[in-house]
Amino acid sequence: MIDIRLAHTALLDATDRAAARALLDIVFDGLLDDDWEHATGGMHVLVRDGADLVAHGSVVQRRLLHGGRALRTGYVEAVGVHPARRGEGHAAAVMTAVEEIIRGGYDLGALGSSEMALGFHKARGWRVWRGPTAALTPDGVRRTSDDDGGVHVLPVDGVPLDLDGELVADWRDGDVW
């Protein structure tokens, strides 16, 4: 039986954290410590089939600067489905829960997409950020041109966006986007 659980990082016990990390290590062929850190501190979506964790995703709060505003952003991290369980709708279940979290508590949703998932995100209403991307680093705003075209946003009602404008992410170690 499939069970979908939402829980903040603080409410995950050691077994849940270990299972999520192990799953993501399989999905991403070894998850970097920075990437695991990026996935924590917010809400997790855990999809289990019986005792087995088959899919995971998380939403963490970030500040993205756009159009003279600091937008409270639900940033999507560590979405993965066990390779043996792909094609069963688990990624869609994770993203449905993620999108509900974003629409209920944030000004904007954002994520960095893999090439493989571009069509999946587009079909769900995520939009490619066409403008330049940057990061607010300890040394000031620095362009992240390698990430241009790879950032997707989920607009939330009432928040004006210019998809051709600049989008600046808050700083973090590892991959900024």
Mean pLDDT: 96
What portion of residues is helical?
10-25%
The N- to C-terminal Cα distance equals: 35 Å
* Oligomer type: single chain
* Number of continuous helical runs: 4
The count of strands amounts to 10
Question: What structural class do the secondary elements suggest?
Answer: alpha+beta
Main sheet summary = 10 strands, mixed
What's the shape?
Answer: globular
Q: How much of the residues is beta strand, in percent? A: 35-45%
Q: Could you name the ranges where pLDDT drops below 50 across 5 or more consecutive residues?
A: none
Radius of gyration: 16 Å
- Element order, helices and strands? EHHEEEHEHEEEEE
Summarize this entry quickly.
With 177 residues, the protein is an alpha+beta fold.
List key phrases describing it.
177 residues; ten-stranded mixed beta sheet; alpha+beta
